[in-house]
Structures are given as structure tokens and as C-alpha cells.
Design brief:
The strands form three sheets. Strands 1, 6, 7, 8, 9, 10, 11, 14 and 15 form a nine-stranded antiparallel sheet that branches. The chain has a four-stranded antiparallel sheet with strand order 2-3-4-5, with no helix packed on it. The longest helix has 18 residues. The protein is an alpha+beta fold and 409 residues long. It folds into three domains: 52 residues, no CATH class; 141 residues, no CATH class; 128 residues, no CATH class. The structure holds heme C (7 copies). InterPro entries: Cyt_c-552/4, Multihaem_cyt_sf, Multiheme_Cytochr_ET. Keywords: Signal.
Length: 409
């Protein structure tokens, strides 16, 4: 049997095993957390962790999915900004009707298909894409909103010549962009895995318990023991081993591996290798890894990581805070190890330390184009790649030149 077919069959079989163990709940059973009684829901954390809760609301994690609404969707529903033409008399118009928001396909001005925006995926840092509910399945809509171009664009990987409305979305998508999704059944349709979802059963965003694990017992204990100042019935992340801390983030920031268990069951302290078959990317080939979604592989291939003992994603990122574009603050974190007076400081001696210190990032973690995520806006013949910060921290000569040129201006 050919290798690829064998691989695909194994993938499908492991998916069936996994999803047959997935959350089963009848709609309307209760209004408690979809994930069961061990979960309290983020709103329950607000009372005692107000500062963290409030800043968390500004993060990409919190905003990464939600019920589609005009307030949430960044793209325009107003003519002429709401039209995407395929160039052959076919167009899709984003329409706000009394009954909801729709992507409506017209061929020579005759309405051909009409599909509702139900779920919005992506916080809108870079892009948003939209899912439509139909008979137990979610379908990705043909048009996404692409922030760098401020425009509607053909969804990544969609055909450029006509609007495709039948791209089925698998639960793995929710595994990285939500905190739970209700799955009704899993079956085979030919060689394809077919999942049926429960309507409106979703915990949107990456919530507190997606990272911290079930916390109902923690909430109950501290509610009845307000004098207790030490955290009880919750995993102390600072007390975990380095690899365990990295795995917490790698669950969603190392790409989609071949699953062994549903990603939703992951709790802090678990080993990623119990959830996905290992990825065999070798550190010396890191330069070939796509910048999209693979921060773990790139960061762990960097000398900073390899040559220091305790580095994790938290060495630079505060998981409860939106620190986007605060390059000087990030540079301060570099300088906790690379002090200006020390031997490990920047070797770029043509610039004074005071200038270097403001922005280590653009030269050593430049934004590079993704090969996998590209968007075609109206009238373009070749798609524009989305750019992302590479996490392979090293010397980039070309980007340094660009930085120097910008500095001179
Ligand atoms: C009734 C009060 C209360 C509620 C509600 C509460 N916590 Fe806590 N939590 C505490 C106290 C007290 C501590 C210990 C002091 C501290 O770290 O703030 C704590 C600590 C923590 C810690 C740090 C553990 C450590 O030491 O590293 C985490 C994580 C945590 N809580 C998560 C949550 C989550 C998630 C929720 C919501 C599902 C939540 N808490 C709701 C009282 C509460
Ligand atoms: C993306 C994953 C993620 C999410 C979402 C998240 N946390 Fe955390 N949290 C962490 C990590 C990682 C640490 C340890 C940080 C460190 O090592 O400095 C942490 C630490 C904590 C701590 C103890 C340290 C501190 O800063 O006081 C508390 C309390 C806490 N989180 C509560 C919450 C609450 C409440 C929410 C939801 C409003 C939440 N977290 C959402 C990953 C997350
Ligand atoms: C359950 C999946 C999941 C986990 C676990 C997770 N992330 Fe994320 N993370 C995402 C997704 C999805 C996005 C993209 C959010 C968006 O903008 O729509 C993201 C975005 C981010 C961003 C960019 C956010 C911004 O607002 O600019 C950072 C930084 C980040 N994650 C760090 C972490 C770190 C550190 C951890 C571990 C403590 C972690 N993530 C754990 C899924 C996850
Ligand atoms: C293995 C985890 C994973 C899976 C599966 C996944 N994503 Fe993502 N996605 C991410 C992470 C992490 C980011 C942000 C960081 C990056 O792009 O490197 C992201 C970014 C995005 C963004 C851009 C958000 C923004 O504004 O920056 C969109 C839109 C998106 N994903 C949609 C989807 C859709 C739709 C699916 C399912 C078909 C999907 N993703 C599957 C992890 C995942
Ligand atoms: C926890 C400490 C630590 C932090 C934080 C840190 N580094 Fe490093 N970094 C190191 C160590 C250790 C080395 C290896 C030095 C050696 O080879 O002697 C290194 C190496 C490097 C190198 C050389 C890489 C190569 O391929 O030759 C660059 C460039 C660098 N760091 C930049 C940065 C930048 C930029 C940041 C912040 C975004 C940063 N570092 C944060 C510890 C750190
Ligand atoms: C040495 C510091 C450092 C470490 C360690 C680090 N990051 Fe980052 N990360 C950055 C900087 C700097 C940015 C760019 C922030 C910006 O441009 O606003 C960034 C951006 C990101 C983004 C958004 C990328 C984009 O362009 O959209 C994600 C996602 C992310 N980091 C995830 C992670 C994860 C997951 C880990 C651990 C595997 C990690 N980071 C470790 C410094 C770091
Ligand atoms: C203008 C771009 C630029 C900025 C800004 C910059 N660097 Fe560099 N850095 C370079 C270049 C180029 C080299 C290689 C110099 C050489 O070998 O000729 C380098 C070398 C280094 C090295 C040594 C790598 C080795 O080969 O051992 C480290 C560590 C480093 N930089 C860290 C930093 C830190 C930390 C900051 C912020 C405080 C920073 N750099 C800011 C461009 C820059």
C-alpha cells in the first residue's frame, strides 16, 4: 500500500478513536459549563482575579472566536466596500439583512447562494475568517477579511475563480481557536472523516481553564475559605518543569500534528507527546519551518533557548496581557540576559547601545512572510502572504539593512 494512503488511514482511525470519546451532551441539558462540572467558566474567575481578568479581555486568546456580529467583524457591509468580484460576472456581497449577516453569491446579478455568518474566527490582528452552520456541520465561507490590506479577500486555499461554499471545518480548528465544542457524532463518508456538531455548543475564545485546567474545585474552596491566601486545587505553573510549561503553549503553537487524544483534554502538567505523535523537525532545519503557528519549533531551535537553562515562552510573554507592538518592552526582556555592558551584548557596533536597546526585535525576530497563509484580494493575480514574527532568534543581514535604511530616513 502506498505510504501516503497508509498515513491518511492511520490519521483517520486515530481521529475516530479520539472523537468517539469526545464531549457528549444533550442541548439544553443545563446552563452549566459545556465541559462538565469540574469547570467553572471564566466569569467565575473575575471576582478574585480582577486585574488578570480585565487585562486578559484585551488578548488575542480571548478574542480568537465568537458569534459573528457586525461589532465583531472588522470588514465592511457597506457598498462598495462589501463586494468581492471574481471577474467573470460572479461576485459575493456581504449583506446585513433583517435576518442576519450573509455572504451572498450572484452570477450576472442573479442570486445563486446565500450563507449566514455564524462564527467569526481570528481576533483580527491579521485576519478573520467565518464559519456558517448547515445541517450539523460548519462550513468556512469563501471570503475572509485581511487586515493588512483592509479588505475582503479570498479565504486561504480557496479557488480564485468562483465562491466555494462547501469547505467543511473539522473540530481540530476549534481545538486551537476555542475552549470546547459539542460533537454529536463521528462517522466515515468514504475515506473522509465526517463529524456532526451540536448546535450552539461552544465555549468561545481560549479561556482561563483552557490553559489552567478545570478550576471549579479551586473556586468552591476559595469561596468558602476567604482567609486562605495560598492557591488550592489548581496547578501551579511556576512549579512545573520547563518542558511541561513549553508544552502548554506548544499544544496550539507547534502546528497540527497527528492526534492521539483530543486537544481539549490537555491540562497543565500533561506531556504534549501524549496528545500528538512527535514532530521530527530537526533544529538545524528550522529555517525551513513556516513562521505561521510554529513558534515552538522555531524558538526551541534558537541559541537563546538551547544555551540557557530556564527559558520558556513566559520569559518574554505575559499570557494575560496584550503587549502587541511594544517592542521596547520586549527588548528589555532580551537585555535581562544580553546586558549592554556584558560580553553577550549585540555585536552590531556601528550603532550606539542606546539605539539598539530600543528595538532588538526588528533585526533579530523580523516579521517574515508565511508560505502557508496567503490571501488573494480582489483583482490580484498572485496572493499576498501574511507576515509573522519569526521565533528563530538569530542574525538576519537583509532585515538589518532594511532597518538601517529606515533609520536613516
Ligand atoms: C473566591 C476567590 C477565587 C476565585 C473565584 C478564583 N480564584 Fe484563583 N486563586 C485564589 C487565591 C486566594 C489564590 C492564591 C493567591 C493568588 O495567587 O492570587 C488563587 C490563585 C490562582 C492561581 C495561581 C496558582 C499559583 O500559585 O501559581 C491560578 C492559576 C488561579 N487562581 C486560577 C483561577 C481560575 C482559572 C479561576 C476561575 C475559574 C479562579 N482562579 C477563581 C482565589 C480565587
Ligand atoms: C494562554 C494561556 C493562559 C490563559 C488563557 C490564562 N492564563 Fe493564567 N497563567 C498562564 C501562565 C503560563 C501562567 C504562569 C506565568 C508565569 O510563569 O509567569 C499563568 C499564571 C496565572 C496566575 C498566577 C500568576 C499571576 O500572574 O498572578 C493566575 C492567578 C492566573 N494565571 C489566572 C488566570 C485567569 C483568572 C485567567 C482568565 C482570566 C487566566 N489566568 C488565563 C497561562 C494562561
Ligand atoms: C488552545 C490553544 C492555545 C494555547 C494553549 C495557547 N495559545 Fe497562544 N494563541 C492561540 C491562537 C489561536 C492565537 C491567535 C489568536 C488570534 O489573534 O486570533 C494565539 C495567539 C498568541 C499570541 C499573539 C497574541 C497577540 O494578541 O498578539 C501570543 C503571544 C501567544 N498566543 C502566546 C501563547 C503562550 C505564551 C501560550 C502558553 C502559555 C499560548 N499562547 C497558549 C492559541 C493558543
Ligand atoms: C494547531 C493549532 C491551530 C489550528 C488547528 C488552527 N489554527 Fe488558526 N491559528 C493558530 C495560531 C497559533 C494562530 C496565531 C499565530 C500564528 O499565526 O502563528 C492562528 C491564526 C489564525 C488566524 C489569524 C488570526 C489573527 O488575526 O491573527 C485565523 C483567521 C485562523 N487562525 C483561522 C483558523 C481556522 C479557520 C482554522 C481551522 C480550519 C485554524 N485556524 C486552525 C493555531 C491554529
Ligand atoms: C534567558 C536568557 C536570554 C534571553 C531572555 C534572550 N537571550 Fe539571546 N541568547 C541567550 C544565550 C545564552 C545565547 C547564546 C550565547 C552564546 O552562544 O554564547 C543567546 C544568543 C543570542 C543571539 C545569537 C544567535 C545566533 O544564532 O548566533 C542573538 C542574536 C540573541 N541571542 C538575541 C536575543 C534577542 C533579540 C532576545 C530578545 C527577543 C534574546 N536574545 C533573549 C540568552 C538569552
Ligand atoms: C525571546 C523572547 C520571546 C520568546 C521566548 C517567545 N516570544 Fe513570542 N514574540 C516575541 C516578540 C518580540 C514578538 C513580537 C511582538 C510584536 O510584534 O508585537 C512575539 C510574537 C509572538 C506571536 C505573534 C506572532 C505574530 O507575528 O503574529 C505569537 C503567536 C508568539 N509570539 C508565541 C510565542 C510562543 C508560543 C512562544 C514559546 C514557544 C514564544 N512566543 C516565545 C518574543 C518572544
Ligand atoms: C540594526 C539591527 C540590530 C539591532 C537593532 C540589534 N542587533 Fe544584534 N546584531 C545585529 C547584527 C547584524 C549582528 C551580527 C554582527 C556581526 O557579526 O557583524 C548582531 C549580533 C548580535 C548578537 C551576537 C550574535 C553572535 O554572533 O554572537 C547578539 C547576542 C545580539 N546581536 C543581540 C541583540 C540584542 C539583545 C539587541 C537589542 C538590545 C540587538 N541585538 C539589537 C543586528 C542588530
Amino acid at each position: 500500500m502506498n505510504k501516503r494512503l497508509l498515513y491518511v488511514s492511520l490519521l483517520i482511525i486515530s481521529c475516530i478513536i479520539i472523537f468517539s470519546q469526545c464531549i457528549h451532551k444533550q442541548p439544553g441539558e443545563d446552563n452549566k459549563d459545556l465541559r462538565g462540572e469540574q469547570f467553572a467558566g471564566s466569569a467565575a474567575c473575575m471576582g478574585c482575579h480582577k486585574r488578570i481578568y480585565d487585562s486578559y479581555l484585551s488578548t488575542g486568546h480571548y478574542k480568537t472566536s465568537g458569534p459573528a456580529s457586525q461589532a465583531l467583524i472588522k470588514g465592511s457591509f457597506v457598498n462598495p466596500h462589501n463586494v468581492f468580484s471574481y471577474g467573470n460576472g460572479t461576485k459575493v456581497v456581504m449583506e446585513a439583512r433583517d435576518s442576519g449577516l450573509f455572504q451572498v453569491a450572484y452570477g450576472d446579478s442573479v442570486l445563486q447562494e446565500l450563507h449566514r455568518f455564524d462564527i467569526s474566527v481570528g481576533s483580527g490582528r491579521k485576519a478573520q475568517t467565518f464559519l456558517s452552520w448547515r445541517n450539523g456541520k460548519y462550513f468556512q465561507l469563501p471570503l475572509s477579511y485581511f487586515i493588512p490590506a483592509h479588505s475582503w479577500a479570498n479565504s486561504p486555499g480557496f479557488p480564485p475563480s468562483y465562491p466555494k461554499f462547501d469547505r467543511v471545518i473539522p473540530s481540530t480548528c476549534f481545538g486551537c481557536h476555542s475552549s470546547a465544542v459539542g460533537i454529536k457524532s463521528v462517522s466515515m463518508e468514504g475515506l473522509q472523516l465526517s463529524e456532526e456538531f451540536e448546535k450552539n455548543q461552544l465555549v468561545y475564545g481560549i479561556d482561563c481553564e483552557r490553559c489552567h485546567g478545570p478550576a471549579a474545585e479551586h473556586v468552591a474552596f476559595h469561596t468558602t475559605h476567604p482567609q486562605e491566601k495560598a492557591a488550592m486545587h489548581i496547578t501551579k505553573i511556576g512549579g512545573l518543569k520547563k518542558q511541561q510549561q513549553l508544552d502548554m503553549c506548544a499544544l496550539c503553537h507547534s502546528g497540527l500534528g497527528t492526534p492521539q487524544k483530543p486537544a481539549f483534554e490537555f491540562k497543565p502538567g500533561d506531556a504534549l507527546s501524549d496528545y500528538f505523535f512527535p514532530d521530527f523537525t530537526r533544529p538545524e532545519r528550522a529555517a525551513e519551518v513556516d513562521v505561521h503557528g510554529k513558534q515552538y519549533q522555531l524558538f526551541t531551535a534558537s541559541k537563546c533557548f538551547i544555551k540557557s537553562d530556564k527559558m520558556t515562552c513566559s520569559s518574554c510573554h505575559d499570557p494575560h496581557n496584550n503587549e502587541r507592538n511594544r517592542l521596547q518592552a520586549f527588548s528589555q526582556r532580551c537585555m535581562s540576559c544580553h546586558q549592554p555592558e556584558g560580553p553577550a551584548f549585540c555585536k552590531m557596533t556601528s550603532l550606539p547601545a542606546a539605539v539598539l536597546s530600543k528595538n532588538c526585535i526588528d533585526c533579530h525576530m523580523p516579521a517574515l512572510p508565511s508560505r502557508n497563509i496567503t490571501m488573494l484580494t480582489e483583482g490580484q493575480t498572485s496572493p499576498t502572504p501574511d507576515s509573522m514574527r519569526t521565533h528563530l532568534i538569530t542574525v538576519y543581514r537583509e532585515e538589518t539593512k532594511a532597518f538601517m535604511a529606515a533609520l536613516k530616513k
